[in-house]
User: Fold this.
Amino acid sequence: MYMMSKRLMNQERVINEIFETLAFQEKTTTSRPRGLFLLLGFSGAGKTEIAKDFAQHWYCDASRLVEIDMSEYELDPAACDSSKWSKRKHKNMWNRLAEIVGKRPYSVILLDKVDKASSIVTKILLRVLHGKTSDAKGNLVDFSKCIIFMTSSVGSDQLILSCTCYNRNQDLWEKYRSNPAEFFKNHDCIIKGSGCERLLFEVRKFFTSDMLYSLDKILLVENFQNLKSVMRLLLREIVREFTGERIVLQISDSAVHALSVITSPTYPLRKAVLEHIIPQLSSAEGHKKADVYIDTLIGTNELSFRFQSHEKDVDDWYFEQEGGTFDQLIANLRKKVEAVSMIFDLQSDLLNISDNSGQNPSMVQKLLQQLVQCNVMLTSSPLPIQPIEFACEKRISCNVVPCNFPTDEQKEKIVNACKRLQEIDSGIAKAASVIVDVLIKIIDAPFVSDNLPDKHFVFEGLDHDSKSGLVSCITDTIGDSFFTYVKLDTNSGEEVKNYLIEKVTETPCTVLLFDGVEFYDSVFYESLLQILDKGTLVDNEGLIVDFRRTTVILTSEAANKSRLADWFNYEHDVLINMAVNQNVKRYRTELFNWIDEMIIFDPILPENGRILRFSKIDVRFSQLLFHVYWHRDK
Assistant:
């Protein structure tokens, strides 16, 4: 039941009621099914998934589920003789049910959309519900070991009805406008009762009372709230169905949102996955095992796929991430089992003490000490687990100070130049002073320190001339030794990677400016992710280069210039004359997971105008991404 609650989100009440009904059902000598349930609610609420999960967890076999679409048994208006049609469908339905329970008595039968079936066909259900299950030859068909779920969306529209009585006449409208709360409290609404009450009323009108009284439970399946989690779960299950355990799927929030935009009752998630995701996974066929990271291109709903191969099993990968081994896990489990056993012994001793009130108080104190010891055993590990900082056996020692570390004279020169920059009232100078100030704090920090300032930036709103001005300003302030400018559209990823390793090995406290991040290739992108995420990069000899003291600046042309100008409160006449959409390449949204701050330049006056700074901890940061990068025709 716990595992079902983890998978079927927001359905704990329904799951509990079904389990209680099945667990405490009295054994009977009739052939009536063990459980009969009618699940009501909107399409897509999870009624079918509940039946699937009960097959998995009640009979420990998902293949025990047999799904029958009852809309197949809807009365055909084109049928010339409805009595012959009904007789044929009646026989077909009965033979189908008899065959199911004859081959596999322990089955979960799902009669989906039972409200669509003809009333003649539903008479078969009454025979099953009442236990009258002899076939035409007089042989008993035993349904007592199976569970039957019926689903229906009858009356679900009643759940979302809201009062609109204030539109009936002018007097009601005036009362509603003056005091809405008082209006809803006192007026005689034409919509009576709660949504559930109205739904049950519609169900009683649609189904016969004989059928409803034969059911064990009538349950309302409410819509799930956490759409993103549900979609991730379904995505992984669908992909696993087609690729097995070979591919581990990681999907971002933006990609989930992109899929949710295109899905609908007529275009379900499964169909969207088959058309937009499964064909792209063919690129992973050359790998025995692979992680697939699905994201969107910034400012669009276009999906982007990144593949990372690995040859390790999932278990080995898990232990590596935890920094332990299988032996350590077994030792932990053994110690926790011992602690649980001690707790049961303590419970028995405490019961004996309560029966004998004349016991020594010191005995109680001793038992309490043992209980504390059990708690320590349950919350601690018997073996120390060493965190894995580097994946490579060879590594550069963090205790060795590089040769090209800023001298006191260079530092003083940089500090004075930063003060002069802060006095200049221009966007270029203000942004450069932010970067130089971060460099100064990194220089001042101890060489072995994890408490470094935010050092990953994105600059938007710059044009070609303002980029040149920014590069000149930073270079004049800190010098060529501590600044590196890389134009990504003219250099290959392998060349950039080798150059960065050589540069940072010599000068760790470096400012790296990557111009045109949307022009990355796969080699540079993998290198950039390692720098931003782990702060390291592995060279061709397997040595790890430390990038934790480097400052990274990314620039791009992906932003919507009109929306950028809107942030600077330009008049509407100025905005409509700007290009709404730039036909530029775009980069993956996931990069912003590692960005600490975005700096926006005035797109009309990028060199001399103001700048806006948005930190990642700012509550407006996610809204800013949508506002700055979104283009309507994308």
Notes: The radius of gyration is 34 Å. The first strand starts at residue 35 and ends at 40. The mean pLDDT is 76.
